[in-house]
Amino acid sequence: MTAKILIVTGDAAESLEVLYPYQRLREEGYEVHIAAPTRKKLQFVVHDFEPGFDTYTEKPGYTWPADLAFSEVDPGEYAAVVIPGGRAPEYLRNDPELRKILKSFIDADKPIAQICHGPLLTAAIDGLRGRRVTAYPALELDMQSAGATFQDAEAVVDGTLVSSRAWPDHSRWMREFLTVLRAKAPVT
């Protein structure tokens, strides 16, 4: 049976951070489902850098349907979870259904790939204490407040937790995550 991977996201997620792992994991042979607060067409965004701006800009990105609502997810059916960034994690961390899902992945030591602002979700369930992580560099203080050791690197692997800064680091992030995933949940 093909292992299933869950991507948890919502509106205003970074387009590339949802669709790159979605396509890469399917290419590898995994079955991938996208879960959101409700089953609906999600509106993703594109974050980019403009000369003269102190931070990134945000533009409308792709739309994509959610396969499941968080309330429909049985974490036991999934071998791993991917947590994209963008602005979505800022409000998703308040969702009690999502917090239950992520806690079950942490408790079972299943592979977790998180990128950009995604670590705000694992921080919300106290899943980073004592771990090494990276995230979007502006979140360094948030990661430290969550009890993690922040490292400014393309990808940081701490056991089954694989984190990355942002979409420019995709290749290294997915390479490291697939190494963990192949060991824990190989495609059959």
From TrEMBL:
PROSITE patterns in the cross-refs: PEPTIDASE_C56_PFPI
Domain DJ-1/PfpI, chain residue ranges per copy: 4-178
Leader sequence residues: none
Classification via PANTHER family: DJ-1 PROTEIN (PTHR42733), DJ-1_THIJ_PFPI FAMILY PROTEIN (PTHR42733:SF2)
UniProt record similarity statement: Belongs to the peptidase C56 family.
Name of the protein: DJ-1/PfpI family protein
Organism of this sequence: Streptomyces cupreus
